[in-house]
Amino acid sequence: MKLKNKVAIITGAARGIGMATAVKFSKEGAKVVIADVNELDIKRSVESIKELGGEAIGIKVDVTKRKEVDELINNTVHQYGRIDVVVNNAGITQDAQLLKMSEEQWDKVIDVNLKGVFNIAQAVGNVMKEQKSGVILNASSVVGTYGNFGQTNYAAAKWGVNGMTKTWAKELGRYGIRVNAVAPGFIETPMIDKIPKNVIDMMKEKSLLNEVGSPEDIANGYAFLASDEAKFITGTILSIDGGLVI
Fold this sequence. Notes:
Layout: E1 7-11, H1 16-27, E2 31-36, H2 39-51, E3 55-60, H3 66-80, E4 85-88, H4 103-131, E5 134-139, H5 143-146, H6 152-172, E6 177-184, H7 197-206, H8 215-226, E7 237-240
Parallel strand pairs: 1-2, 1-4, 2-3, 4-5, 5-6, 6-7
Helix pairs in contact: 1-8, 3-4, 4-6
Protein backbone atom coordinates (compact mmCIF):
# COMPACT_ATOMS: atom_id res chain seq x y z
CA MET A 1 0.00 0.00 0.00
CA LYS A 2 1.44 3.36 -1.09
CA LEU A 3 -0.19 5.43 1.66
CA LYS A 4 -0.34 3.03 4.59
CA ASN A 5 -1.21 4.88 7.83
CA LYS A 6 -0.96 8.29 6.16
CA VAL A 7 -3.52 10.87 7.28
CA ALA A 8 -5.03 12.69 4.31
CA ILE A 9 -7.50 15.56 4.10
CA ILE A 10 -9.33 15.85 0.79
CA THR A 11 -11.51 18.89 0.19
CA GLY A 12 -14.52 18.64 -2.09
CA ALA A 13 -14.31 14.92 -1.41
CA ALA A 14 -18.00 14.08 -1.35
CA ARG A 15 -18.40 13.82 -5.13
CA GLY A 16 -16.56 13.44 -8.42
CA ILE A 17 -12.77 13.58 -8.48
CA GLY A 18 -12.61 14.25 -4.73
CA MET A 19 -14.62 11.15 -3.90
CA ALA A 20 -12.61 9.01 -6.32
CA THR A 21 -9.43 10.32 -4.68
CA ALA A 22 -10.74 9.53 -1.20
CA VAL A 23 -11.56 5.98 -2.26
CA LYS A 24 -8.16 5.53 -3.92
CA PHE A 25 -6.30 6.87 -0.89
CA SER A 26 -8.28 4.58 1.39
CA LYS A 27 -7.48 1.55 -0.76
CA GLU A 28 -3.81 2.54 -0.50
CA GLY A 29 -4.04 2.47 3.31
CA ALA A 30 -4.64 6.13 4.18
CA LYS A 31 -6.89 7.43 6.93
CA VAL A 32 -9.10 9.83 5.02
CA VAL A 33 -10.83 13.03 6.12
CA ILE A 34 -13.75 13.84 3.82
CA ALA A 35 -14.05 17.64 3.84
CA ASP A 36 -16.96 19.18 1.99
CA VAL A 37 -19.82 21.68 2.30
CA ASN A 38 -22.61 19.12 1.84
CA GLU A 39 -23.26 17.15 5.01
CA LEU A 40 -25.47 14.53 3.36
CA ASP A 41 -22.90 13.79 0.66
CA ILE A 42 -20.16 13.68 3.33
CA LYS A 43 -22.09 11.03 5.24
CA ARG A 44 -22.61 8.93 2.12
CA SER A 45 -18.94 9.18 1.18
CA VAL A 46 -17.72 8.16 4.63
CA GLU A 47 -20.11 5.21 4.66
CA SER A 48 -18.91 4.13 1.20
CA ILE A 49 -15.28 4.08 2.31
CA LYS A 50 -16.10 2.19 5.50
CA GLU A 51 -18.04 -0.39 3.47
CA LEU A 52 -14.84 -0.96 1.48
CA GLY A 53 -12.98 -1.61 4.73
CA GLY A 54 -11.30 1.78 4.91
CA GLU A 55 -11.06 4.37 7.67
CA ALA A 56 -12.67 7.77 7.17
CA ILE A 57 -14.25 10.65 9.01
CA GLY A 58 -16.27 13.54 7.62
CA ILE A 59 -15.94 17.23 8.48
CA LYS A 60 -18.15 19.95 7.03
CA VAL A 61 -16.13 22.93 5.84
CA ASP A 62 -16.47 25.95 3.60
CA VAL A 63 -12.92 26.50 2.37
CA THR A 64 -13.58 30.21 1.85
CA LYS A 65 -14.11 30.71 5.59
CA ARG A 66 -10.86 30.70 7.53
CA LYS A 67 -12.46 29.86 10.87
CA GLU A 68 -13.96 26.67 9.42
CA VAL A 69 -10.66 25.79 7.76
CA ASP A 70 -8.81 26.18 11.08
CA GLU A 71 -11.39 23.94 12.76
CA LEU A 72 -10.89 21.31 10.03
CA ILE A 73 -7.15 21.27 10.61
CA ASN A 74 -7.44 21.30 14.41
CA ASN A 75 -10.06 18.54 14.46
CA THR A 76 -7.97 16.35 12.17
CA VAL A 77 -4.87 16.77 14.35
CA HIS A 78 -6.97 16.07 17.45
CA GLN A 79 -8.33 12.89 15.84
CA TYR A 80 -5.15 11.51 14.28
CA GLY A 81 -2.23 13.45 15.75
CA ARG A 82 -0.82 14.54 12.40
CA ILE A 83 -1.61 15.45 8.78
CA ASP A 84 0.49 13.87 6.05
CA VAL A 85 -1.35 14.90 2.90
CA VAL A 86 -3.81 17.59 1.83
CA VAL A 87 -5.57 17.49 -1.52
CA ASN A 88 -7.02 20.91 -2.36
CA ASN A 89 -9.73 19.58 -4.63
CA ALA A 90 -12.74 21.78 -3.76
CA GLY A 91 -13.78 23.87 -6.74
CA ILE A 92 -16.68 25.34 -8.67
CA THR A 93 -17.41 26.83 -12.09
CA GLN A 94 -19.50 29.88 -12.96
CA ASP A 95 -18.96 30.18 -16.71
CA ALA A 96 -19.64 33.24 -18.83
CA GLN A 97 -17.86 35.20 -21.53
CA LEU A 98 -15.87 38.20 -20.33
CA LEU A 99 -18.40 40.79 -21.48
CA LYS A 100 -21.26 38.92 -19.80
CA MET A 101 -19.59 37.73 -16.58
CA SER A 102 -21.05 39.19 -13.42
CA GLU A 103 -18.99 40.37 -10.48
CA GLU A 104 -20.68 37.68 -8.40
CA GLN A 105 -19.58 34.95 -10.84
CA TRP A 106 -16.02 36.24 -10.71
CA ASP A 107 -15.94 36.51 -6.91
CA LYS A 108 -17.45 33.07 -6.24
CA VAL A 109 -14.95 31.18 -8.40
CA ILE A 110 -11.94 33.14 -7.15
CA ASP A 111 -13.11 32.70 -3.55
CA VAL A 112 -13.44 28.90 -3.71
CA ASN A 113 -10.82 27.94 -6.31
CA LEU A 114 -8.05 30.34 -5.27
CA LYS A 115 -8.65 31.76 -1.79
CA GLY A 116 -9.87 28.36 -0.56
CA VAL A 117 -6.63 26.71 -1.69
CA PHE A 118 -4.62 29.44 0.05
CA ASN A 119 -6.62 29.06 3.27
CA ILE A 120 -6.12 25.31 3.48
CA ALA A 121 -2.43 25.39 2.56
CA GLN A 122 -1.58 28.15 5.02
CA ALA A 123 -3.43 26.46 7.87
CA VAL A 124 -1.98 22.99 7.25
CA GLY A 125 1.48 24.35 6.43
CA ASN A 126 2.14 25.19 10.06
CA VAL A 127 1.27 21.64 11.13
CA MET A 128 3.50 20.12 8.46
CA LYS A 129 6.33 22.49 9.31
CA GLU A 130 6.34 21.23 12.91
CA GLN A 131 6.24 17.63 11.66
CA LYS A 132 9.06 18.40 9.20
CA SER A 133 7.11 16.52 6.54
CA GLY A 134 3.98 16.70 4.45
CA VAL A 135 2.51 16.84 0.97
CA ILE A 136 0.22 19.56 -0.38
CA LEU A 137 -1.53 18.72 -3.64
CA ASN A 138 -3.53 21.34 -5.53
CA ALA A 139 -6.23 20.94 -8.17
CA SER A 140 -5.19 22.88 -11.23
CA SER A 141 -6.52 22.43 -14.78
CA VAL A 142 -5.30 22.56 -18.35
CA VAL A 143 -7.40 25.75 -18.44
CA GLY A 144 -4.88 27.22 -16.01
CA THR A 145 -2.19 26.95 -18.67
CA TYR A 146 -4.04 27.42 -21.94
CA GLY A 147 -7.19 29.36 -21.01
CA ASN A 148 -10.66 28.44 -22.23
CA PHE A 149 -13.55 30.22 -23.90
CA GLY A 150 -16.08 31.46 -21.33
CA GLN A 151 -13.91 30.72 -18.31
CA THR A 152 -12.09 33.94 -17.41
CA ASN A 153 -12.68 33.39 -13.69
CA TYR A 154 -11.77 29.70 -13.72
CA ALA A 155 -8.65 30.27 -15.85
CA ALA A 156 -7.50 33.08 -13.56
CA ALA A 157 -7.98 30.91 -10.47
CA LYS A 158 -6.11 27.95 -11.93
CA TRP A 159 -3.25 30.13 -13.20
CA GLY A 160 -3.07 31.39 -9.63
CA VAL A 161 -3.03 27.85 -8.27
CA ASN A 162 -0.10 27.02 -10.56
CA GLY A 163 1.80 30.04 -9.31
CA MET A 164 1.09 29.28 -5.67
CA THR A 165 2.14 25.65 -6.17
CA LYS A 166 5.57 26.62 -7.45
CA THR A 167 5.99 29.39 -4.87
CA TRP A 168 5.08 27.13 -1.95
CA ALA A 169 7.41 24.41 -3.24
CA LYS A 170 10.25 26.96 -2.98
CA GLU A 171 9.19 28.21 0.44
CA LEU A 172 8.32 24.93 2.14
CA GLY A 173 10.87 22.49 0.75
CA ARG A 174 13.29 23.32 3.56
CA TYR A 175 10.75 21.90 6.01
CA GLY A 176 10.38 18.60 4.18
CA ILE A 177 7.09 19.63 2.58
CA ARG A 178 6.44 18.80 -1.06
CA VAL A 179 3.93 20.83 -3.10
CA ASN A 180 2.56 19.73 -6.48
CA ALA A 181 -0.55 20.17 -8.58
CA VAL A 182 -2.56 18.01 -10.94
CA ALA A 183 -4.01 19.58 -14.09
CA PRO A 184 -6.90 17.47 -15.39
CA GLY A 185 -8.17 17.73 -18.92
CA PHE A 186 -11.75 16.87 -19.81
CA ILE A 187 -12.99 14.53 -17.06
CA GLU A 188 -16.38 12.85 -16.72
CA THR A 189 -17.70 14.44 -13.51
CA PRO A 190 -20.95 16.15 -12.42
CA MET A 191 -19.38 19.42 -13.63
CA ILE A 192 -19.88 18.38 -17.28
CA ASP A 193 -23.46 17.13 -16.89
CA LYS A 194 -24.85 20.31 -18.46
CA ILE A 195 -22.46 20.29 -21.41
CA PRO A 196 -24.11 19.35 -24.74
CA LYS A 197 -23.19 15.97 -26.21
CA ASN A 198 -21.74 17.55 -29.36
CA VAL A 199 -19.28 19.55 -27.23
CA ILE A 200 -18.27 16.41 -25.33
CA ASP A 201 -17.73 14.58 -28.62
CA MET A 202 -15.60 17.49 -29.85
CA MET A 203 -13.43 17.31 -26.73
CA LYS A 204 -12.98 13.58 -27.22
CA GLU A 205 -11.75 14.21 -30.75
CA LYS A 206 -9.19 16.75 -29.46
CA SER A 207 -7.73 14.16 -27.10
CA LEU A 208 -4.93 12.07 -28.58
CA LEU A 209 -6.54 9.07 -26.90
CA ASN A 210 -9.98 10.00 -28.28
CA GLU A 211 -11.75 9.72 -24.95
CA VAL A 212 -12.84 11.59 -21.84
CA GLY A 213 -10.92 10.89 -18.64
CA SER A 214 -12.42 9.37 -15.50
CA PRO A 215 -12.19 10.65 -11.91
CA GLU A 216 -10.10 7.57 -11.15
CA ASP A 217 -7.47 8.70 -13.66
CA ILE A 218 -6.97 11.87 -11.63
CA ALA A 219 -7.13 10.02 -8.31
CA ASN A 220 -4.29 7.77 -9.46
CA GLY A 221 -2.16 10.84 -10.15
CA TYR A 222 -2.84 12.27 -6.70
CA ALA A 223 -2.04 8.94 -5.05
CA PHE A 224 1.31 8.76 -6.82
CA LEU A 225 2.27 12.31 -5.91
CA ALA A 226 1.20 11.76 -2.29
CA SER A 227 3.31 8.62 -1.95
CA ASP A 228 7.00 8.13 -1.23
CA GLU A 229 7.39 7.04 -4.85
CA ALA A 230 7.27 10.78 -5.63
CA LYS A 231 9.57 11.82 -2.78
CA PHE A 232 11.85 13.77 -5.16
CA ILE A 233 9.05 15.56 -7.00
CA THR A 234 8.00 19.06 -5.96
CA GLY A 235 6.87 22.23 -7.74
CA THR A 236 5.40 20.18 -10.59
CA ILE A 237 2.12 20.66 -12.46
CA LEU A 238 1.18 17.15 -13.63
CA SER A 239 -1.11 17.20 -16.67
CA ILE A 240 -3.54 14.28 -16.85
CA ASP A 241 -5.45 15.10 -20.00
CA GLY A 242 -5.15 12.30 -22.55
CA GLY A 243 -2.90 14.46 -24.70
CA LEU A 244 -5.55 17.16 -25.02
CA VAL A 245 -3.14 20.06 -25.09
CA ILE A 246 -0.05 18.75 -26.90
